[in-house]
Amino acid sequence: MIQFLIKVSLMGFWAAIAYSQVPTIRVAANLVLTPVSVTDAAGRAVRDLKLEDFEIEDNGIRILPARLGEPGEAPLELAMLFDMSGSVYSLFELERQAAARFLRRTVRSCDSVFIMSIANEPKMLQERTASLESALKAIAGISPTTQATAFFNSINRAALLLREVERPDARRVIVALSDGEDNRSVGNRLDDVMRELQLTTCLFYSINPRGPSYSKNLFGRRAQESMEQLARQTGGASFVVDKVEDLTEFYDRIADELQGQYLLGYYSPAKTGSRIYRRISIKVRARPDLQVKARSGYYPR
Fold this sequence. Notes:
alpha/beta; Rossmann fold; 2 domains; six-stranded mixed beta sheet; four-stranded antiparallel beta sheet; 8 helices
């Protein structure tokens, strides 16, 4: 009986040693997932790439890619933000129609979406839902206002809500319909919002409905530049409406990009939780003709 107990104890001891040598927990924590869009010279999505086609550098260190999802396969955690302030009042009905079309094209049964307004303060119009019908109903019920614009507070709040969703394989996306002009936010500026988006691994897209008139004053130009910077650093895109038809076109371009987007994964050489920003460079091997768009970096978890 004593020999049996010793044998069992030794078996448990060596099993524990073997288990401790398996780097599963450390590796999983170091997995960096990055949405990547690849287009050819004509702007068409390239959807036939393989894992070995990608080259990755993390802070200048060459890294082997570890996993690659099929284009558009990864689920979406989507935040739709609408500027309801007086500065974008005139095209509001067309904006609602274009946004509804975008949701119909984009949201699948595996995706979730929430709807938020941008005015004096961020306001939830539709809690996170997998129901396309509920999301469309929320958009149909949006009405404009003459309130001020807490743009940065709203983007920051949306990023925090997306970070709370425990779906590591999902793409987190904010699509904001706004001119980006902020005259209400407290405690959040461009750098704060940028860091929050990067910590959340969130793609940022914006559509400015004001058209070329945004450039007539310094405030408008700086607002658009801020949205372009948020988009560029996170791997998204920023558009400016020139004519009414642009609303639908730009929403369609965002939908097309999301549907052709790869989710590329690799194991970071960084220590987990270091909170030191690391830069990423992603290319397609031996294909300089292809344009690769992805976030510029990340904070290790």
